Every structure is written in C-alpha cells, then in structure tokens.
C-alpha cells in the first residue's frame, strides 16, 4: 500500500543499483509528477501526491560508489516539504538509485560538501549525522560566516565552539567529515535500516 511518492530505496541484493558521487549542480527544476496511480477506478487513475518532484542535472566530479553513467547525470528528486535546501548546494554528496528507466535520489540523504586543502571533499560538522566522528579539516577555500551583526549568545547557539573557530567578525568551520565516512555511515545505518523497513 502506498500513500505518497517516494524515492527508490535499495535492498541488500540490489545494492549495485546505487550510485554515490560528489556532484556540481547544473540545474534543479520542478517536474510534472505523473509517476504512479494509487488505484484505478474503471479507466481512471486515482492519485494522491504529497511529494514534490524535481528534475536534477549534475556534473559528476568524483565517484564514491558505483559506476558513473557519464560526465553528467540526470535524476529525479522527491521531497515532502517543498524545494529542499539540497537544491541550493553548489556541490553535494548525492545518493541515487537506478530503477528501470531513471535515477532517483535517495530521499533526505544528500550533503553539502566542500573542497579541502588536501584535495578531498568533506562536509562541515554542522551538517552531519550524530554518529559521525568529526575531524579537524582545513577547507579550501575556507568556510566562514560574517557574525558582525550577531549577538554573542546567538553565535554560541548557532556556531558551537567544538566545530567553529572565531576570528574577529568572522567564524570559520574547522571540523567536518570526509565523504568516504559519510558514505560508510549511510550504508551501514540509515539506508540499511530503510531497505529492511516496510515504510518507504
């Protein structure tokens, strides 16, 4: 039984359908949502659409798992809460699964990522799951915010000192998680849990 559109989730036996990559956004646009029927009444198709559908196009910068379909990938992105923050990221770690015809993003499992001084990719600590081990990372260029108009209390709440380093009117991200560790966590914890769940 299904009451909403969902992304494709993979089970252990078809994990090869999963492609994980660092991508650079080319475009993310709204798409017509005509993917499924809840049920048929005679010749009519009854639909209940609670998820929005986006058509995403990304340049593949680095493959983390699976084989890239080419230098550019198109996939569908479903979201229950309007246009996701993910659609605004310039670079992201993206999890997609292949069905019969298309790639579809794993729902809510994408991370904003940045270049690091050692030539890798990582996310700032504020964006990661709680089980991830944060490491000291030098981002290049540096990730920072202008905090000149913020109160000290607001800065302490928004930018914990365990992750951010303050320097005058700017605050710099100094801890994060590399993409290979994010991938490991997703495979071992979240996606594995979802693939064995009755709730998709």
State the gist of this model.
It is built from two helices and 15 strands. It has 200 residues and is mainly beta. The longest helix has 17 residues, at 179-195.
Question: Key features?
Answer:
single chain, 200 residues, mainly beta, OB fold (Dihydrolipoamide Acetyltransferase, E2P), 2 domains, 5-stranded mixed barrel, 4-stranded antiparallel beta sheet, 2 helices, globular, disordered N terminus
Strand content: 35-45%
What proportion of the residues is helical, as a percent range?
A: 10-25%
Number of domains: 2
Uncertain stretches of 5 or more adjacent residues: 1-14
Mean pLDDT across residues:
80
CATH topology of the largest domain: OB fold (Dihydrolipoamide Acetyltransferase, E2P)
What string, H for helix and E for strand, traces the elements in order? EEEEEEEEEEEEHEEEH
* Overall number of strands: 15
Rg over CA atoms: 19 Å
Structural class: mainly beta
Distance between the termini: 10 Å
Task: Sum up the overall morphology in one term.
Answer: globular
Query: What is the correct CATH architecture of the largest domain?
Result: Beta Barrel
Number of helices: 2
Q: Largest sheet at a glance?
A: 5 strands, mixed, barrel
CATH class designation of the largest domain: Mainly Beta
Within the largest sheet, what's the order of strands? 1-4-5-7-6
């Amino acid at each position: 039984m299904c009451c909403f559109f969902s992304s494709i989730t993979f089970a252990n036996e078809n994990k090869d359908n999963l492609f994980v990559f660092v991508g650079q956004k080319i475009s993310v646009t709204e798409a017509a949502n005509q993917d499924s029927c809840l049920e048929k009444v005679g010749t009519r198709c009854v639909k209940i659409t609670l998820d929005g559908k986006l058509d995403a196009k990304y340049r593949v910068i680095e493959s983390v798992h699976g084989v890239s379909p080419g230098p550019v990938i198109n996939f569908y992105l479903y979201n229950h809460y309007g246009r996701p923050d993910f659609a605004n990221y310039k670079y992201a770690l993206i999890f997609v699964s292949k069905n019969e015809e298309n790639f579809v993003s794993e729902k809510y499992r994408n991370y904003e990522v940045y270049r690091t001084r050692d030539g890798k990719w990582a996310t700032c600590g504020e964006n990661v799951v709680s089980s991830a081990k944060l490491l000291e990372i030098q981002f290049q260029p540096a990730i920072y915010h202008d905090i000149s108009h913020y109160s000290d209390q607001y800065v302490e709440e928004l930018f914990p000192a365990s992750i951010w380093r303050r320097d005058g009117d700017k605050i710099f991200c100094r801890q994060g998680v590399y993409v290979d560790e994010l991938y490991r966590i997703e495979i071992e914890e979240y996606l594995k849990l979802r693939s064995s769940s009755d709730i998709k």
